[in-house]
């Protein structure tokens, strides 16, 4: 999200503005100001980011119920409770969660949060260089364990342009996962209309660094993994709770989970 163009504040940071959207406390005054401005101009962006966060939390809880206790969270962003490790390790204290992000500031904040937390770690890495990312010892310890691993790609693939070959990236990640593992993806929808209450110019600028994709394109990122019902759907409609049930056309982000069989 090109916050600089939206708010004319060069000190606002996209990851911290997203953090503001989902209730985090890592932002600076400029980030909060940019977020408040976007809230007024395109309120459904806020709803969409919140829907994404809720989907990821539900997906992690569902995976824990399936017996998965190893997680790789790529493009994790600034930590906001409940974090992946808080959900996963609460139920499986002997499990492991490795966060990965390209932003050193995210790394510093995450390491502060998980300091002393057994089973939680962070590695600096870029999803656009999957081979380097997968070569990290902390990640290899999970992918070579022979036990199922859940790889989370929450709201990160829509920052990968076609020129960087997201199909190649997701194929490399899938291939590294042991059988019985899961891939979780959420992705801004390119075929879901935004409501009239959202300023078109604001949306255009917000998506300058994003690459929204249609549902069929998102589904292809799962390759030959077996999609968990209900498949790739609006994030708010994936295993909804009472709070998320019902149509939410304003939440223009897809979510899906699939298993390597």
Can you describe this structure?
The N and C termini lie far apart (36 Å). 46% of the residues are buried. With 261 residues, this protein is α/β, with parallel strands linked by helices. Strand 1, helix 5 and strand 2 form a beta-alpha-beta unit. Strands 1, 2, 3, 4, 5, 6, 7 and 8 form an eight-stranded mixed beta sheet that branches. The protein has one domain: Vaccinia Virus protein VP39 (Rossmann fold, 3-Layer(aba) Sandwich), CATH 3.40.50. The chain has eleven helices and eight strands.
Features:
261 residues; alpha/beta; Rossmann fold; eight-stranded mixed beta sheet; 11 helices; disordered N terminus
Ends apart, CA distance between termini: 36 Å
Number of domains: 1
User: H/E series, N to C?
Assistant: HHHHEHEHEHHEHEHHEEE
Number of strands: 8
CATH class: Alpha Beta
> In CATH, what is the homologous superfamily?
Vaccinia Virus protein VP39
In CATH, the architecture is: 3-Layer(aba) Sandwich
Question: What is the third-level CATH name, the topology?
Answer: Rossmann fold
Outline type: globular
Range of strand content: 5-15%
Poorly predicted regions are 1-10, 245-249
Query: Helices and strands: which structural class?
Result: alpha/beta
The count of helical stretches stands at: 11
| Main sheet specs | 8 strands, mixed
What percent of residues adopt helix (DSSP H or I)?
A: 25-40%
**How confident is the prediction overall: mean pLDDT?**
86
**Radius of gyration from the alpha-carbon trace, in angstroms:** 17 Å
Protein name: SAM-dependent methyltransferase
GO molecular function: methyltransferase activity
Organism: Streptomyces caeni
Enzyme class: transferase
């Amino acid at each position: 999200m090109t916050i600089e163009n939206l708010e004319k504040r060069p000190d606002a940071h996209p990851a911290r503005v997203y953090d503001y959207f989902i209730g985090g406390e890592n932002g600076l005054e400029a980030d909060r100001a940019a977020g408040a401005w976007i809230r007024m101009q395109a309120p459904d962006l806020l709803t969409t980011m919140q829907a994404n966060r809720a989907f990821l939390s539900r997906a992690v809880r569902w995976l824990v119920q399936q017996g998965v206790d190893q997680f790789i969270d790529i493009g994790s962003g600034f930590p906001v409770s409940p974090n992946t490790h808080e959900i996963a390790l609460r139920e499986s204290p002997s499990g492991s969660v490795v966060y990965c992000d390209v932003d050193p500031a995210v790394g510093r904040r995450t390491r502060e949060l998980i300091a002393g937390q057994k089973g939680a770690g962070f590695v600096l890495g870029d999803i656009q260089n999957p081979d380097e990312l997968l070569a990290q010892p902390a990640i290899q310890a999970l992918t070579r364990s022979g036990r199922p691993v859940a790889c989370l790609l929450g709201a990160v693939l829509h920052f990968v342009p076609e020129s960087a070959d997201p199909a190649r990236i997701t194929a490399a990640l899938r291939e590294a996962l042991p059988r019985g593992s899961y891939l979780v993806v959420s992705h801004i929808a390119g075929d879901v209309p935004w409501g009239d209450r959202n300023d078109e110019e604001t949306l255009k600028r917000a998506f300058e660094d994003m690459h929204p994709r249609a549902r069929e394109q998102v589904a292809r990122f799962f390759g030959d993994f077996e999609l968990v019902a209900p498949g790739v759907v609006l994030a708010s409609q994936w295993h909804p709770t009472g709070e998320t049930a019902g149509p939410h056309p304003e939440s223009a982000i897809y979510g899906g989970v699939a298993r390597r069989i």
